[in-house]
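[job 0417] fold request received: Peroxidase
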Amino acid sequence: MKYQDVTKTPGENSYFLVFNIVDKQKHRDQLVSFCNNLSGLIRSMRTRFPALETSCVMGFGADAWESLFPQLAKPQQLTPFKEIKGSRHTAVSTPGDLFFHIRALNVSACYELASIISQQLAGMVTHVDEVHGFRYMDGRSIIGFVDGTENPEMEDERVDYAVIGDEDEQFAGGSYAFVQKYIHDMSAWQSLSVEEQEKVIGRHKFNDVELTDEQKIPSSHNVVTNIKDENGDDLKIVRANMPFSNPSKNEYGTYFIGYARYFSTTLRMLESMFLGSENGATDELLKYSTAVTGTLFFVPSPSMLDDIE
Ligand code: HEM
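[job 0417] inference complete; emitting structure tokens
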């Protein structure tokens, strides 16, 4: 089964682009041919720069999918993301018709592909969001902790958690990409001691070793996001978060992206973070991190994107 690059590691550089379509009916034919040609654009980048490992994932918001492809069914778990409003924290819902997650070893390859895509879509879309993420030190989030350790590791496991299978046959090989742009209150975060920060995350800061259950608190991020199925087995998604920052503007952020076979898994994690986990605790990390966007996209299989009409 072929799937877009939804199981890849976060990489060195990433561009996240979100667009809205100006007029879905008027531009439909051009947009469909753009979709059919995207794999060619990616192939061209890989041919031009074989060492740069350029990749690009394309996704569609629920409204866009329905309007552009009314002849197709809708993926079972594709709906517009509904805001999650807890008593303390809110996971906002923000619009987005088209999504691109571009990764490469060199930032110039991200730029090149993003600029070609933007030029080809010009006149048909409006800009919603653009974030340039970078690998920070040894894979740390901008708040200084290594991010991604508990992701599924082996490719077959990553596929199992991130890629739709026979349960939604028509969309097998697809995935659900959920994105949120978080802004961190860095001065509040830095006012904590390292020990306090470690309790927020549930791991040691310097060497990434997990805290013991006794050292963690019920609201530790890795307690709240650790969810299980009815047999007590961990439910996972494939996260490819990237830090971004404009230090001179005092902007420090995390672009959260989780690829999932079932959006319901990501949703359970979000509900646990924002509404409260089984033990009632909301995520301690949210005291220092505000979600300013939140959008769900469906990522079709490459063959569906190539052949879609
Ligand atoms: C774990 C950072 C948002 C799901 C972690 C870890 C860090 C981290 C440093 C520990 C290392 C690791 O296992 O990856 C962040 C930051 C976020 C964020 C900076 C945004 C401000 C989210 C969101 C979700 C999520 C929105 C889910 C929807 C998880 C999961 C784990 C995790 C499932 C592993 C938990 C376990 O140990 O079982 N995150 N995260 N994170 N995060 Fe996040």
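[job 0417] notes: The pocket of protoporphyrin IX containing FE is lined by residues 141, 143, 145-150, 180, 182, 201, 203, 221-222, 225-226, 239, 254, 256, 258, 266, 269-270, 285, 289 (CB under 6 Å). Residues 28-48 form the longest helix (21 residues).
[job 0417] exit 0
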